[in-house]
Amino acid sequence: MKETFLVKHAVGGRSFIDTAKQPLPYAFKQDGDNWVFKVQTAKSEIIDELLKWKDELNVFVFQVFENEPTRKVWFYVNEGPVYYDEASSHLVIVAQSRIEYIPDQFSDQVSQL
């Protein structure tokens, strides 16, 4: 499986992180009702700008399989927290909601809700 990680501004659609264009080490896990993302990255102007919009972020994980349709997982960061940990050089994003779907089947999946 190949995976792409994106962090975008929810309103404007501006991409802050896109591992398809610039690979970065990251990991995520579920923690209770939240999903915690840790991205290893240097502090930069892009990270500073991302932090300004921390209450309006969408996080996406695209999972591309060899013999299955691509799966898109959409996480919404509502009230964070979102912060940069200087000691570990990690951006930490906590998302509160998650929607998983197959883009080619999205309209079918929505009509079943």
TrEMBL record:
Q: Can you name this protein?
A: Uncharacterized protein
Q: Which organism is it from?
A: Paenibacillus sedimenti
Q: What is the lineage of its organism?
A: Bacteria, Bacillati, Bacillota, Bacilli, Bacillales
